[in-house]
Amino acid sequence: MKAPWQRIGAFRALVSPALDSPELRASLTQIESIAASPEATLLQAGRHRTVRLRLCGAGGRQIDAVAKFFGRQSPFKDLWDRLHSSKARRTFEAASFLAKSGIGTTPPVACLERWSGPRLTCGVFVSLYVDDALCFKDRLVELWNTRAPYSSFLAVLRLAATGIRALHDAGCRHGDLGNQNVFFTRRSPGGPYSDALFLDLNRTRFGSSPLTTWQRGRDLARICLPPGFMALFMRLYWGEEPPPRFISAWRFWYRLFRFHSKTRKFRHPFRELDYVLNPQKAPAQAPYPPARLQWVWDDEKSRPAQVAADEKAMLGFLEPSYRKWLLREGRLLSRRFSSETLAARPSRLDAPPDAPVMRRTIVRETDAIRAGEAVRATGCRKALVRISMAETEEMVRRRIEVARHVASLGVGVAIQVMQRPDFLGGESLAAFTGRVLASCGFAPDWVCVGQGVNALSWGVRDFPSRDALIAAGANIATDLRADSPRVLSTAIEAPVMQTGLANVATLFSRNVRYAGIALAWREGDGTLAGEARALRALAAGAFYARSQVFVISDSPVPESVEKTLRGLVGELCAPD
User: Fold this and answer.
1) CB hemisphere CA count around 525 (13 angstroms)
2) Distance (Å, rounded) from C-alpha 555 to C-alpha 525?
3) Which residues contact 479 (CB under 8 A, 6 or more apart)?
4) b/e code 222-250 from CB counts within 10 Å (16+ = b)
5) What domains appear along the chain, each with residue ranges and CATH number?
6) CA–CA separation, 59 vs 22, rounded Å?
7) In angstroms, rounded to a whole number, what is the distance separating the alpha carbons of residues 166 and 455?
8) Which pLDDT value is given to residue 354?
9) Which of 260, 373, 436, 462 is packed most tightly, with the most Cβ within 10 A?
10) What is the Cα–Cα distance from 4 to 9, expressed in whole angstroms?
11) Comparing C-alpha atoms, which of 135, 136, 147, 307 is closest to residue 231?
12) pLDDT the model gives residue 422
């Protein structure tokens, strides 16, 4: 039932029929003094204040409520609201619509307006207080600050995406759908966050039919996520790859909103100056960590998640002189090892075209018994176990147990020791690798040192971090040859898809003779055979004349591609 307008003291008001009572109306007449009392709690400062307070309900029952006091506005805006509706009224009607549609929001209590002639002197929206709610932005900051695994981020992104999809399918366009206006709640104290609810509804518009792709793109333009997470969020929102029309609409509104945000200080100069001079008046903001610290470990794939998936954004995080050098060397090598040069140039490592690819499977299990069962079930005779510095000591111990158990089954085991970004600090790569190999108790077939030497997600972003990785790999290679004569090769992994064909050769010292170079490849990175051919030519023709080339792929490799790799690489490591 739609709430009728009624007079409550100096206000005209809309009150939720389910909560309307003489006691509540009497309490609402004093809402300004109640909000100013010591018992009230200021939740949000700024132009629009949000206050938690206690109101009196039916039978004297206390109502735990939140009142949002909207700030004074221009005479023109007052005239507009007089003819249409005020922010308080729009918020009340939108909250009522969401509650009726089963979409999460704070249950509406009342809308209060006080007019003095043509001027709106006070507008208030009152709702019930929802305990233990955390906004999307604060949850992301919390996860980044605690270095939570990728699975935790995935759960939060899925919760937000499904909640917003339900909002849009119900025919509601929020209008100010930033991270700070999406909240999560629990169904039981201490349980996981399981429901999304939406606040700050004064710009909301709703109708009887689901939103169009254009409207959805417009509403999602204010969601703030790193590029890689934004792409994931959109897939979760649609349940599949987003439609091209939606992407076009989102990009248009995203760029427009970014321009709108940058012009805020010109549009509201006095308000922004007041916030600078009086910080206590400014809305509270939980700052995001710097972009380079938005690093997330993917516990399922044993590698960093693609947070900054945009290549341009990744290069922007590199130290300027290092980035300039990297791009220059990448262009030079791209010309030197062009596709035509590779096709015409004989390689000293060339093998017969029918030379088989020695295949390994990546063991992802972290339980030794289950890992052994998986190896036996697939019939594989060679396995790659990844052990990363980014994981907990307990996880490292379990992965070492997996490696020992798989080796005891007569399966050839290779170990990939992966560093973590230098800004996270901790043990050196060389020390960690030595400790891992000493704990294994067997000599692996080969060891891959480091990963992603020109990928920012692994922390190589300047000359010192590059040189530290090279030095660690060189020391480990020397120690392995001296202490473990059964080790066949020591490789250092090298993606070649970011700054030009085969640029990765510039990242290694010409004085380091690794026994192998491993190519990191994911589906979508480029033509795997072309990347392998380029790296092969470098190994044979540049300064790795005796190096063996490996391919380590996180994606299954089709049989046709595997046939193409014959004679190009020594071993292929990929999931079955």
Assistant:
1) 25
2) 11
3) 434
4) bbebbbbbbbbbbebbeeeebeeebeebb
5) 5-128 (3.30.200), 134-279 (1.10.510), 298-573 (3.20.20.80)
6) 9
7) 37
8) 64
9) 436
10) 16
11) 307
12) 63
The reported pTM is: 0.79
Q: Report H helices in 70-206.
A: 75-83, 87-101, 136-145, 150-169
> What is the predicted pLDDT for the residue at 457?
65
pLDDT tens sequence across 156-213:
999 999 999 999 999 999 999 999 999 999 888 888 888 999 999 999 998 889 999 9
Amino acid in the structure at residue 139? R
Containing 342, the helix (H) or strand (E) segment is helix 339-344
Task: Show the 3-state SS of 423-465.
Answer: HHCCCCHHHHHHHHHHHHCCCCCEEEECCCCCCHHHCCCCHHH
Q: Dihedral of CA 154/145/525/387: which sign?
A: negative
Q: Provide the pLDDT for residue 466.
A: 74
- Determine the Cα–Cα distance for residues 155 and 229; give it in Å rounded to an integer: 12
Q: Give helix 463-483 / helix 429-440 axis angle, nearest 10°.
A: 30
Report the distance separating Cα 241 and Cα 165, nearest Å: 14
Q: In the Cβ-directed half-sphere of 526, how many Cα atoms lie within 13 Å?
A: 17
Please state the φ and ψ torsions of residue 397, each to the nearest 5 degrees: -60, -45
Q: What are phi and psi of 207, to 5 degrees?
A: -150, -165
362 near 518, Cβ under 8 Å? no
Round to whole Å and give the CA distance between 152 and 303. 15
Q: What does the pLDDT read at residue 475?
A: 74
Residue ranges, the chain, pLDDT below 70: 1, 268, 270-272, 274-276, 279-286, 292, 308-316, 329-355, 422-425, 451-459, 480-490, 492-514, 522-526, 534, 537-547
Beta strands per DSSP E along 220-349:
297-298, 303-304
**Residue 360, pLDDT score:** 87
For position 67, what pLDDT does the model report? 94
Kind and range of the H or E run holding 527:
none
**CA angle at 14 for the pair 204 and 17, rounded to the nearest 5°:** 105
